[in-house]
Every structure is written in C-alpha cells, then in structure tokens.
Amino acid sequence: MSKIFEYMKPYTGMILCAAALLFVEAYSALILPSYMADIVNDGVLTGHVPVIWRNGAIMLLLTLLGVLMALIAGYFTAKTATGVSNDLREAVFRKVLHFSNAELNRFAVSSLITRTTNDITQIQSMLMMAIRQFIYAPIIAVGGIIRALDRSTSMTWIVALATFVMVGAMLVMFFVAMPKFKMIQSLIDRLNLVSRENLSGILVVRAFSTQSFEKKRFAKANKDLAETNLFVDYAFSFLMPIIMLILNLTTALVVWVGALQVSAFQADIGDIFAFLQYAMLIIFAFLMVAITFVMLPRAVVSAERIKEVLETKGSIKFKENPTPLPKDFKGIVEFRNVSFRYPDASEDEDNVLDGISFTARPGETTAIIGATGSGKTSILRLMLRFFDVTGGAIFMDGIDIRELHKQEIHGKIGYVPQKAQLFTGSIRSNLLYADKDASEDRIMDAADTAQAAAFIEGKPEGYESNVAQGGSNLSGGQRQRLSIARALVKGTPIYLFDDSFSALDLKTDALLRAALKKKTGGSTMLVVAQRISTIMDADQIVVLDHGKIAGLGTHAELMKTCDVYREIAASQLSEEELSK
Hints:
12 strands, alpha/beta, 64% helix, single chain, 10% strand, 4-stranded antiparallel beta sheet, 6-stranded mixed beta sheet
C-alpha cells in the first residue's frame, strides 16, 4: 500500500479537512448518551419536564450537526478516493505506453486491463471506506471507552471481552481471506484473457466449429473464479453473525449487571443507559473496522499489482542526455553485425538474428525476404527499438540508435506494421494520427499514393466515413492501404513496410509500388515481403535463413548466387518469369 500513500499526498488537505469534520461528528455522537442519562436521571425520574425539553433540544441540534459534518466529510472523502484512483489510472496508462514489447509480454494485455480497471476500482472503494472508518471509528472507540469508564468502571470487563473476541474474529478472517484474494485477481486476469481471445477470434472459432470447446474453456475459468469468490463469501458470512452475537450478548450482560447495580443502589438508571449506549458505540466502531477489513485484503492485493506495474523498469534504456541527429539528416541505416534474442528466451535457444550486416541508403529500396520465422519482422522492431540488440549495433547517419532519444528515432520513421491497426473514429482521424497538423492536400495525396483514394471517395461520407474498432468494417486490403497512407502523411526520410502488401491483389500491388517509388524516391525504404513479385525491383534484397543472411544483392544477382532465394522464387514464379 506504500505506493498508494504516495498518490494520496496531493490530497492531504482534503483528508485533514475530512478528519476534522469526522472528529466533530464523532464528538457529537459521544456526548449524546450523557444528555440522555441526564434526561432519565434529572428529568424522567424527578418529573422535571424542562430538563427533558432542554436536553432533548440539545440532542436534536447535536444530531443535525453530526449529519451535516458527515455529509461534508463524505464529499471530501469521495473527492480524495476518486482523485487518487484517477491519478493511478493515468500513471498506469502512461507507464504501459512506455513499456517495450518485453514488458507487455511479461504482464499480458488481459492482466494490464484488469489492473487498470478492476484493481484500481478495488482501491477506490477501499479508500472511500477507509478514510472515514479509520478516522471516525478509532475516535468513537477511544472516546466511548473513556466516557463509559466515567459512567461505570465495574462493567469495563464486558466491553474489553467483547472487543477482544471481535478483534480475534477479524484477524482470523483476514489471514484466511488474503491468499484467496490474490487468487481472485489472477483468476479475473484469466477470465479476461479467455473472453478477449474468444471475442477477437470469434470468426476462427465459428469456422472450426469449436464453440463447445470454447464454452468449456470459458466455463472452467468462470467456475474457478466463482468458487474462489464463494469461499471468500462463505468465510466472511461468519463474521457478521459473530459480531451480532457479541453485540447482543454485550447488551444482555450490561443490562443484567446494570440491573443488579441499580437494585443495590450502586448506579443510576440513566448511567446504565449511557453505559449501554457507549458500549454499543464501541462495538459499532469495531463493526465499521470489520466491514473495512472485509475489503482490505483484496485492496492490498490490488495495490501490490498496481505497484508491480508502476515499479517495473523498462528493458529499453534511453540516455538522459541523448545525442541529437544532424540537421542535414539523410536517413542512412546501417546494421553492423547485429544479433538478437528475446529477453525471455532460454540459454539453449538460438539467436533470432545472428551477424546481420547491411546498409540501407536514401533513394534506395532494401527488401528483406525469407521463410517464416527467419527474423524479418525482428529487424524492423530492432530498428524502432521495440527491443534492443543483444550484439552489434544499428546506426542512423552513423549514430548508434541507443544514443538517440526515442522520439527522434520514431520521428524519422514512417512505420507500416504487419497487422494494419486502425482506431475507432473516421478515416480522416486515422490518417491524421501520424500528423494532426497535416494539410488536406497532404492527406489526399497520401491516400492517392496508397491507392486508397478511390474507395474512400466512393463512400457517401468520404474521408469522414466511420472506422469501427480495429477497422472491422473495412476489408483487409482497405486497412492495409489506409495504414500505408497514414505513414505517408507523416512524411519521413525512412519508411519501414512490414509485409504491408500481402492483402493487395497483384495489380494494386504494382500500382502502389510504382506510386511509392515516385512519392518517396528520396527516402530510405526497408520492405519486408513474402512475395518475390513485390521486391523484384528493389535496389538490394536481404535474404534471411534461420536468422542469418543467406544472400545480399539484386534479384538478378541472387538468382545466380543464392540457393535459398532461388528456392523461394521457384515456389512463386512461373518458368517464364524465372528465365528473365
């Protein structure tokens, strides 16, 4: 919980105001039994009506004062709880935005969603109760004991016994529930994961008719969560009956012992009534704490999960004083003996990339091809510093990219990912995602170059047409073309295309590549591709085989010198095309 206390510091003033108001509320509640005792002793038993009216009026005013203080304190408490939770969500979201792929893989997206939503909601609910109960309840308990002793010392053992039993019951419940609360949050992660996979892959589920299997998988995750929740609910269901039993036994003992003392003329009836009320206040104070304790274990677990995210150190380290890129930046990209393996890879696994060396120059297209799993996409991810190289170095205009600020790296690169990711909004908002200040002419020019203008303008609303979540209302080819157009709107000296033409037909592919050559002729182009027809005209082709360079050259050169390239070509091109 220490991390949560850090986020509570800006709200110290509100908490202190709430504490002062709660003190007044508690004080008004504590002096009410004294006035009631005076009504009984000096009014009812003596028949002195003015005492009854006067003390009754004071009690009414004190009650109204307590209600007013409670309302204002509730406002400050709510502002504090919601403010802290809002700050935590923003902090977690900002932290996740700076995570590298290694950290994202460590936590999993489903778990990060749970931590940002459910876990912080648990903390907010806990703070709402804790700020009030941990201030109000101790004042009531301590003040009640002091004032009860002032009325009668002979019955103190009753309150002490009741308090001891209640504290024992709460501690037992706390230690029984804590391990289960840890399990609950992990099981919520699991349920979110299964639900997310089912919803995102619903078409695959239907295509393979595996609905029954997925139902069983979801049912198991749901049942595990329900059973764990049920255990916790069963455990805490014993707490309230125990407290009510203690409350009723305490009342009976106070009345019994008090009656004996009154009959022996050792105490006044009013004092016994006052002591009984103080005993109830003390027990209710512990009851408030008990209710808070029900929520505390889960909130503690949630706080630890939030702390784990916030204190995670990124695997990608950026310099505090990075080297600036030259003003006449050209866009020369050099891979010098680069090796790479994923952070969580075991020692006996081979490197994903090993000894990669090539140079991509402005005005040239460097294509990367190879079998699935040969490391093509990894080269582009290393270029963007989504991961760091484990050997060698990558240079931009002669500067190691590890010496550069990440914003400078990303600011010089237009990236088109393997999976065309679009965002909810309009076509225009997705294109402006690369540069919110882009002019209308630049947007239309980028769409035209990406061969997207025709289908955009064919829509009734044109560039204002709606884009559903993930671009689900567009075809794969349309998503890819919009993704390419978005990168072109950015207008950068380096472009990375990660198999970005796979969903296009051959005619559109050819037209797009020709338009790109004309539009980005002075830029450095790195193109990952599966189809040889897409990269035949590249200035140089890097052929990968099991993470190593098997060939480097033009199409014609590789057809003569590289067996791996010839095998790929033979599987894709006709005899006539191979003979050229």
